[in-house]
Amino acid sequence: MINIILFGPPGSGKGTQSAKLLEKYKLSHLSTGDLLRDQLKRETKLGLEAKKFMDKGLLVPDEVVIGMIESKLDEAGPDTKGFIFDGFPRTVEQAKALDDLLTKKGTSLMSLIALEVTQEELVKRILLRGETSGRADDRDRATVMKRVQEYDNKTAPVADHYKSQGKYNAVQGIGSIDQIFGNLSLVMDDLMVANRS
Ligand code: AMP
């Protein structure tokens, strides 16, 4: 299976680029942010609990998101070519859980691909997205800054976890959507070739 983590801080373009990768490589999308927002919209117990964290720009507890990913992986049929993980894992604990879940499925992670974007550009992009996304956590500068801080403290170490496994790749996340996608595709194509040999 082709399992890829599309990694990067909030606002780095993970959602936009995931959509293009799914189409080109025929992979399935697993975004914990989208799954949580869906729970929230349906006002489930999990959604209402998660909202308390999301509204403050804080990470939702590990066991909640790991449970969601586990059931989505269990649902995947035999035709699934692989997954793009978007917004997950966001802590080293989640990364270790993902490694175990993939091993249980008889597969493993191919690579973490990081989108590199400066902090100044991130905050600008998220506040701009907040004008149209309908997301409360995109509108308030203090919440946006908190999300970036959570990323620096808890999520950035996930990159080291996969560097130590030799699975880390990075792509410049600044430029036009198509330019960035072109760079991502080069990395993906190299990974596919390496996987075949
Ligand atoms: P996103 O759409 O990926 O930017 O996620 C929006 C919000 O959902 C985050 O700020 C967190 O509060 C929560 N969230 C999404 N994915 C995770 C995760 N893997 N672990 C913890 N919280 C998450």
Spell out the blueprint of helices and strands.
Blueprint: E1 4-7, H1 14-25, E2 28-31, H2 32-41, H3 45-54, H4 62-75, E3 83-86, H5 92-104, E4 111-116, H6 119-133, H7 141-163, E5 168-172, H8 177-196
Briefly, what is this?
The chain has 197 residues and is an alpha/beta fold. Helices cover 59% and strands 12% of the residues. Helix 2 (32-41) crosses helix 3.
Q: How would you describe the overall organization of this protein?
A:
The longest helix is centred in the last third of the chain and has 23 residues, at 141-163. The protein is globular, with a radius of gyration of 16 Å. The model has no long low-confidence stretch (mean pLDDT 95). The chain contains 8 helices and 5 strands, in the order E-H-E-H-H-H-E-H-E-H-H-E-H. Helix 1 (14-25) packs across helix 8, helix 4 (62-75) runs parallel beside helix 5 (92-104) and helix 6 crosses helix 7 (141-163). The protein has one domain: Rossmann fold, CATH 3.40.50. It is an alpha/beta fold and 197 residues long. It has helices spanning 14-25, 32-41, 45-54, 62-75, 92-104, 119-133, 141-163, 177-196; strands at residues 4-7, 28-31, 83-86, 111-116, 168-172.
